[in-house]
Amino acid sequence: NATPSFHPLDYLSVVRRRLWWLVTPLVLALITAAALIAFLPRTYNSGATISVAIPVLSQELVGSAQRVTAEERFRSIQQVLLSQPVLERVVREEGFDRTMPMPEALALLRNRIVPEFPRPEVNLPPGALTQFRIAYSDATPHATQRIANRIADVFVQESSGKRAIRSAETSVF
Fold first, then answer.
1. Phi, psi of 58, rounded to the nearest 5 degrees
2. β-bridge partners, 50
3. Which of 15, 86, 136, 167 is deepest in the core (most CB within 10 A)?
């Protein structure tokens, strides 16, 4: 009852006989990767992170029924971000309206903007949001970065303008 002994060169001969088992998947993977690189469209993503200050109001001014949840705050930010005035201003400033009709440019821009909201932090009061991200994707890296910055800039200006109007109306009231 003799047990067969294997020499290290026996392993080399097994690899040599089954070389196609190793080479074929590697070649197929390289061909697939090359085809994907050649035929898939290039898309670049850029984003801007916007920090939000938590408003400080007296408890006497704000009743418990008027507290805003995080979801309501996200929805409000998203509505302002994707609103007609913000998008039209970005379209005009970036010159999209020179190459395509305004409704088509607005739809294109709206489809490429993705607001990203973090999970609400446990230590913050309900409805508080410290920051969120505006992501934009396009075919060229420089345009993607420029447009993402423009969207963030226009959003901040629009939000500040609305907040100033609301503040003035409140003080008049």
1. -70, 145
2. 132
3. 136
19: left (phi over 0), alpha (psi -120 to 50) or beta: alpha
Q: What is the mean pLDDT of the chain?
A: 82
Nearest residue to 126 via CA among 80, 74, 70: 70
Please give the structure tokens belonging to residue 159. Answer: 């939000």
Calpha distance 156→48 (Å, rounded)? 11
For 37, half-sphere exposure in the C-beta direction (CA atoms, 13 angstrom radius) is 6
Task: Encode 139-172: b = buried (16+ Cβ within 10 Å), e = exposed.
Answer: eeeeebbebbebbbebbeebbeeeeeeeeeeeee
pLDDT class of 122 with cuts at 50, 70, 90 = low
pLDDT recorded at residue 121: 65
Highest mean pLDDT pick, 16-20, 64-68, 158-162: 16-20
- Enumerate residues 6+ apart whose C-beta is below 8 A from 139: 41, 42, 43, 44
